[in-house]
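Kindly draft a sequence, keeping tokens residue-aligned:
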Amino acid sequence: MLDEIVIRRAIPKDAAEIRRLTRAAYAPWVERVGREPLPMSTDYDEAVRHDLIDLAYKDGQLCALVHMVTEPDCLLVENLAVAPEHQGKRFGVRLLRHAETQAHALGLSEVRLYTNRAFGSNVEYYEHHGFCVEREEPYMGGLTVYMRKSVGE
């Protein structure tokens, strides 16, 4: 199934579709954290112009995306979102590997990301895929978990 996935770079006309998928993917977390997670309010019109956002399609349907920001010492995964109907089908794994490949191609040795501690299953998911917790910091009544993974070695 994963071989049938097409990944392409987002362009400005994709912003509305990126926003819809992200809002749907994060909607279940709103009640748990008492607010909308930050990716739900990102200005994707702006992000598509300045960041790296890659979209995963299957059978012509947008299934998942990874929003990456190039920093001097790492590639930051700002958002990894999978449409609810495609969760559990390994799209997230595919896009994490894709981010690692992008980091390596950019000459960066690390991928970093952050998530909310209340998203406990996300922390476990990232640990399962080789990320380690770097630190936790209070943020908006919760805890932000900063994670990292070395790549390209």
